[in-house]
TrEMBL record:
GO terms for biological process: nuclear-transcribed mRNA catabolic process, nonsense-mediated decay. This is UPF1 protein. It holds the Pfam family UPF1_1B_dom. The gene is UPF1. It is found in: Cytoplasm.
Amino acid sequence: LNKKRIAYFHFTKEDTEARLAPGDELRLRLNSSAYADLSGSDEAGWSAVGHVSKITANEEVALELRGGQQLGPWDINHGFQVEFVWKSTSFDRMQAAMRTFAVDDTSVSGYLYHKLLGHDVEPQTIRSTVPKHFTAPNLPQLNHSQVYAVRKALSNPLCLIQGPPGTGKTVTSATIVYHLTRQNQGQVLVCAPSNIAVDQLAEKLHKTGLKVVRLSAKSREAVASSVDFLTLHHQVRHLDTPDHQELQKLMALKDELGELSHVDEKKFKQLQNSTERELLTAADVICTTCVGAGDPRLQNFRFKQVLVDESTQAAEPECLIPIMMGAKQMVLVGDHCQLGPVIMCKKAAKAGLHQSLFERLIFLGVRPVRLEVQYRMHPCLSEFPSQSFYDGSLQNGVTLNERLYAGIEFPWPRPDMPMFFLNSTGAEEISASGTSYLNRTEATNIEKLVTYFLKSGVKPYQVGIITPYEGQRAYICAVLQRQTTFSHKAYEEIEVASVDSFQGREKDFILLSCVRSNQNQGIGFLNDPRRLNVALTRAKYGLIICGNAKAKILKAL
Ligand SMILES: Nc1ncnc2c1ncn2[C@@H]1O[C@H](COP(=O)(O)OP(=O)(O)OP(=O)(O)O)[C@@H](O)[C@H]1O
Ligand SMILES: [Mg+2]
């Protein structure tokens, strides 16, 4: 529509080797002879850079090419090469944060500086207004340990909050931020390593009535999220005041023509920058990923109060980015028994990059506030994770009755225990891309279960399907799309995602497809206890695991 060119192709790399995600930058190349044949000249080949705009149900990657593409090999469909465009942005920002920490003594308060380096330092407290009511508007009523966490976070310059899945870390974080904004210390910066975790928090903060801006990377602006309406680019686009009419006009023109004249483009950029700045300045809270905190658009902003959720999923230098913007008071929230940072380089991991700042601070003797009562899972679902991953310390804040889903007829083997393992010996196969795995029998079983749920009155948004393999994820989507028992839209609305992208989230019913089915090699990805922990702790009312009971680790279940 806006004259953008999109290239579709299959990406053939092992899941374990490299994964593409929306927003990744790639260069598409066609060598000179192929292009010369086409264009009748001997130009030095053709290439264009773009970003992954989506990955379709049959694992096809859509690459949106950048800039107005006039000439190109549009009719050729083979012989292309795809390369990763090495973007050092994340690493540059991490390095900049460390440099700032080393040389700039206004980067963090003196107290935090010493704490981060593990020096002995006199304990400090922060004078804060103690709220009359700890529970924030439209968030659940806090329990004692959650209130204690809020108190501690408000009155201390450094606070760590630790807790197993579902113990309300994110709810408590949102409540803390709500109260921090009332301390007259300026805007609060709220971060997490992953986009999904940031969205999760942004949504909760918005519910409390705070003015929230979700800043996302430019390359991700086209990627849909649950909090689109909070994103900076969305807010800029829909700012319908008389002051912003010129910007609106230029945007409409740009959409229509695909690009603007040189003069208009300059004007557009200028208006866009000033509007962005205006919106950012007016916010109570700015939410972005840790790396996003290094965005040039936040360059002149300072944040005395910073909260990082899922901080155990961030590498230490990553976590330092938001902190090095003037922090006096920082709150780190996390769980070291869920997924940690992904460090591709073994050498770097071994040298310590795999350890999060949160974990290091605990080793240094900082005592975290512990949350141990979970409000997500039916008690029968929390038992195994509690025993296996948390030494039995996880308690239930929800009762059996609160987690019995009334009004649906589902044949759980035991009505009081909404879970089961569906055994199948269907074979695992290599997926379409040639590099991931899928399991047709499991996918069919999953589809039957989904249809059964829908028939018994469960709504599509209540169901989540988790699988560790991209091949299976795509295959399940395709199988669901072929179904006709319910509308196309109903099946489409059911979220099918990887374990990693479900960290921090929950659904009423979860179906887990383990995929691997062989007696020797175990179950691949789920072998990591932290990934298994995340996979098993997303469901509120019911969990069904599809797998081959003979596969190694599943025997434990
Ligand atoms: N005090 C509470 N009372 C009632 N419900 C609560 C309470 N605290 C949290 N919850 C509910 O429990 C569920 C899990 O909360 P939340 O997502 O904050 O947990 P979490 O510790 O962040 O989990 P994860 O480790 O998976 O990120 C949510 O549905 C939330 O609304
Ligand atoms: Mg959470």
